[in-house]
Amino acid sequence: MLVAATGCTRIPRGQTAVDRVDVTGNAHIDDGDIEDKIATSATTKFMGVFRGVVYDYSLYDRHVLAYDLARVERYYRARGWYEAHARAGRVIDTGDHHVRVEIFVDEGQPVIVRGIHWNLDAPISPKEDAAMKRAQRLALPEGKPLQEDQIEDARKAVTRVLEDHGYAKATVKLHADVDLVTHAAIVQADIHVAEKCVIGPIRIEGLGTLPERAVRRDIELDPGEPFSRQKLEDAERRLVDRGVVTSANIEPDLEGAPHGIAPLVAKLQPSRLREVSFGGGFEVDALKTDIHAKAAWQDRNFLGDLRRFSVDFTPGIVLYPTRISHFAAPTDLLPEEKLRLELRQPGFIERRTEAFIRPELNTWPVLIRETFIENEPVIGYIEAKTSEGVERTFWRKIITATLSHSLQYEWPFAYKGTLDPTLTPLLISYVELRTSFDFRNNRVHPRKGVYLADDLQVAGLGGQPQDVRVNPEIRGYVPAGKRVTFAARASVGFDFPFNYGVGTDTRDVQIVFFRGFFSGGPSQNRGYPPRGIGPQGDVALFNPLVNQCLASQANQNQCAVPLGGLSLWEANVETRVKIAGPFSGVVFCDAADVAAEKLTLRFDRPHLSCGLGARYDTPVGPIRADVGYRIPGVQVFSGPQEYVPELIPGVPITISLGLGEAF
Questions:
Q1: Cα 446 to Cα 192, 475, 479, distances in angstroms
Q2: Could you tell me which of 53, 51, 35 has the C-alpha nearest to residue 43?
Q3: What per-residue confidence (pLDDT) applies to 316?
Q4: What is the pLDDT of residues 477-523, one digit of tens each?
């Protein structure tokens, strides 16, 4: 039935299918590298088992195989083995029009790079000479086999060093003199240094409707400053990151250029400045199920000057009380929404600083406990918030600093039932400094590098809470093969309150809900629901039927709700494996703890969970699904003070869905 549904293929009459291709004698080059270079290949198996299902048979052709042997020898020559020979040792008939092909390789001895002869037509400084030779050694190391692509890599690397030191007109030629008797190669480097240059006039092509003054401001290149290839690439990156161009290419225009001057030409491909998008989705987790729509509008040249203005609106409905642990038909539809506007002004005070203002209006139900109680009241919040501040980048956008002030008003109301009479609106005002150091090779799909960040908040300039809150974080990524990446993250958080604490008082519980630390959920600890790790308590603020719950539950700590804490630590490790196309998988372990006390890191309460995840890559980031299993023996549930998550179904796991990597 499966074969019929997926489709079968047949071996054409009079032809033979290749079941396997084996390469022997290749001690220095992998089988996979050789097989990638030849046309004769083994038939792909569907699901690793079935031949001729979904995938066509790979057919044997002796003429193609003869060309393949020449390709193998050419590939070896390009890798430094000039005397390598390849021959088809055997074509073995395995029956029923199937064969197995064996290719034998006699590698011989490689040609080794024995030295570099430098021929410069003008002197350069010792520092420049050392940088040039260091770049050559990295791209074309001596004492190793001579590889053709490394010669070109070395030429580009040396040219790049000279251009970064101001030699805009430098030219580099590299060629190798090979002696097959001694199996040695001497590389000749002929370098025309020319003079150092400064940036000359800048001509911009392809502006379209873009304002030229604003584009020149974002390029950040001024005539008269020293020429550097790195500066040109940084300027290109800034323009593309701004989103107003799809591509930018800035090159020196040296034809007829005066002595010591490097005029520039910037060729731009403008993007669409205004965009409207619509979408939708759903979320199912341990706390709720919702469906939502999304509408967004953006103008990247709002009223000119490359000013950006955007509107994002996400209305939704929570299907209450449907959730993974209580998957029943909803009895109530709870409306929710997120509305966010943002205006960003580039070139504020100076050209690398952006000013922004970000008003928001959000409405959502407070669903923070898995246990469902019949006729339980549900409270929610209407949140009006505005943030304004400045953001500046440093050192090729590796360092980012954002200084802002936020004012938020939280107004509680009852979706159903009666609101606790002691619950009153809350006004929060705080100054925030966010800093980050991003040394990753890619921000969406990092494979290597380090990311450091810190969030410092000081509340009390108006509003009710008064505190200092700090939350540093570090992430690291290491490639462990072509398809495997090892990733790790660690974070701590400390809250120093001056006029509140963790407890069951209505005022303090509400403040800690917005200012304290929680852990759990798809981006923190995937074995727990959101806010599932940390101090818990039986309070009527978020659980008005607490007495009814305590009377009906055999395990009374299921009636507790998260209170939050003042100290946090988190650690995450995962191995990411690229499977095929947009699909990938992860194996992860998460640990975390939240303590009610200040400056208290309880590493003896790891709340360790491990599990598996799947990813499907999209233009906006990977869609992910994770299943986290709480490891027995390393969980700490101490009565009503810590919460025991629901079992799904009868197993200590939590299932989560999300967009984007966990970290």
A1: 38, 10, 9
A2: 51
A3: 95
A4: 999 988 899 999 999 999 999 999 988 788 898 999 999 999 988 88
Closest to 218 (Cα-Cα) out of 235, 198, 241, 201: 235
Domains of the chain and CATH, by start:
2-106 (3.10.20.310), 112-192 (3.10.20.310), 198-270 (3.10.20.310), 274-659 (2.40.160.50)
Are the C-beta atoms of residues 202 and 264 closer than 8 Å to each other?
Answer: yes
DSSP string, 286-342: SS-EEEEEEEEEEETTTTSTT-EEEEEEEEEEEEET-BTTB----SEEEEEEEEEEE
Question: How many angstroms separate the CA atoms of 255 and 239, rounded?
Answer: 26
Q: What are phi and psi of 456, to 5 degrees?
A: -115, 125
Q: Which residue in 381, 443, 385 sits closest to 415, CA to CA?
A: 381
Q: What is the pTM of this model?
A: 0.77
CB 85 within 8 A of CB 105: yes
Q: 350 in helix, strand or coil?
A: coil
Asked if 338 and 360 touch (Cβ cutoff 8 Å), the reply is yes
Contact partners, residue 474, CB within 8 Å, separation at least 6: 450, 451, 452, 453, 489, 490, 491
DSSP letters for 103-165:
EEEE--PPPEEEEEEEEESS---HHHHHHHHHHHHHHS-TTSB--HHHHHHHHHHHHHHHHHT
Q: At what angle do helices 126-139 and 148-164 cross, to 10 degrees?
A: 150
Which residues are registered as beta bridge partners of 578?
584
Check: CB of residue 392 under 8 Å from CB of residue 354. yes
User: At what angle are helices 148-164 and 62-78 packed, to 10 degrees?
Assistant: 40
Burial code (b: 16+ CB inside 10 Å, e: under 16) for 125-158 equals: eeebeebbeebbeebbeeeebbbeebbebbbebb
* Under 8 Å between Cβ of 53 and 97: no
What is residue 443's predicted lDDT score, i.e. its pLDDT? 84
- Cβ distance 363 to 337 under 8 Å? yes
Q: Is 444:464 a contact under the CB 8 Å cutoff?
A: no
pLDDT digits (tens, 9 = 90+) for 152-176: 999 999 999 999 999 999 999 999 9
Altogether, the residues listed in the chain come to a count of 663
Residues of the chain with pLDDT under 50: 1-6, 554, 638-641
- Prior bond of 315 cis (ω within 30°): no
**How far is C-alpha 340 from the geometric centre of its chain's CA atoms?**
24
Mapping DSSP onto H, E and C, the string for 521-534 reads ECCCECCCCCCCEC
78 in helix, strand or coil? Answer: helix
Contacts of 207 (CB under 8 A, 6+ apart): 215, 268, 270
Residues 6+ apart with CB under 8 A from 114: 142, 143, 184, 185, 186
pLDDT of residue 98: 86
| CA atoms of 478 and 350, how far apart (whole Å) | 37
